[in-house]
Amino acid sequence: MPDDFKKMANGDTVCIIGGGPGGSACAIALNQEAAQLGLNLDIVLIEQKKFTEHRQYNQCIGVLSPPLESILKEEFGINLPFDLIVREIKKYRLHSDHFSLDLEGEEHGKSWAVHRASFDAYMLEQAKNAGTRIIHNRVTGIEIFDDEVMIFTDGDNYRAKVAVAAFGLDDGSCRIFEQSTPYKAPDFLNTVITKLEPGEEFMKKMDSTIQAFLLSFPGLEFGAITPKKDHISINIAGRKVSSDVMLQFLRSEPVQRFLPPHKRREKPLNYFRGKFPIAPAMNYYGDRYVSIGDAAGLIRPFKGKGINSAILTGMFAARCIARQGVSKSAFETFYKWDCKVFTDDLPYGKGLRFLANAGNRFKFMDQVLKIASEDKIFMACMFNCVTAHKTYKEIIRETLSIPLGYKFLVAVCRHLLSIKD
Predict the structure, then answer these.
(1) Are 101 and 372 within 8 A, CB to CB?
(2) pTM of whole model > 0.90?
(3) What single DSSP character describes residue 5?
(4) Does residue 22 belong to any structural domain of this protein?
(5) CA nearest to 148, candidates 164, 165, 162, 169
(6) How confident is the model at residue 104 (pLDDT cuts 50, 70, 90)?
(7) Do 269 and 369 have their domain in common?
(8) Domain count, the chain
């Protein structure tokens, strides 16, 4: 069917599956685009969860990082309400097995810790206020035809001109799309999250610093401790992380320094499993469907910054739908141009992830952090890698030098000699 038949027209329906930040941003942007173009679109967003009930635990640790505040204000006309913020994040500290380093670099704005369910509820309310129909139901199937898409739920069915996959890495939704389209879910790392409630006195003494860990024990790629208002969120990630790996992480000496004494933990720990993508999905767009955010795997490949990525890709997809249409060739422009900031950075992010994993495996991260403590350029590199203030392409180009390479060569030789001894 010619692409002209896949342009949006008055009365057409767009169905967004998933009401996280990406889905909500896509809905808001579609309403804005339709108003500017004089289109009367029916925008339906289907989300099973009711975020205001706080019944589900979100795997995202809930840190809003720059330039999210300016994105919301400049692109959507939304002012971030400060009552959502439970703590301002002022610093990042990186830990290896035996070395700790306060990361210093050029600040590009503030980072804030939030309760993720509250932020999602706020964004969904903004989508509703913009004119979106919010349906709280579970999607059970999808069929894509030449002229429309049929979405099945536990309640009603919905006919639309296009489906937007904004469901993250939800297993059930991914399988539904994989069965009905050429889409294949992205490669991912597993995550395990828990939280501690050490009491008001301990939280007052805890500074507003995210503690990041690159430790050399099997199954773990990285971990972090993030202070919130009344609790500490702890997350780990890796191919084979589990509750047992989390327990080892919590018991490790570098981590113990930032946890309350065991006797202060009145309740047994609850663990929550999740995933986050480390590569783009296969065929994440096609005729009458497009995926965004985690579902598309379009995030920073080593330091996720997933909320920002979801919101931006949701906005880009909305503009493409309203302006270019819903054909595969229309979504090709979304991929080639709008998503270029993510796709161009993939090989650099993968390379840095490989080096970080190798450093952990061969117990070399102590030396890496020591070099950063002595070299301002490499310190800036580590700061930007952890905070994701710059692309990895920029970071590598600004960091590579012969003197720094020589420092690493000397450090590697000394490390190999120490292993032999």
Answers:
(1) yes
(2) yes
(3) G
(4) yes
(5) 162
(6) confident
(7) no
(8) 3
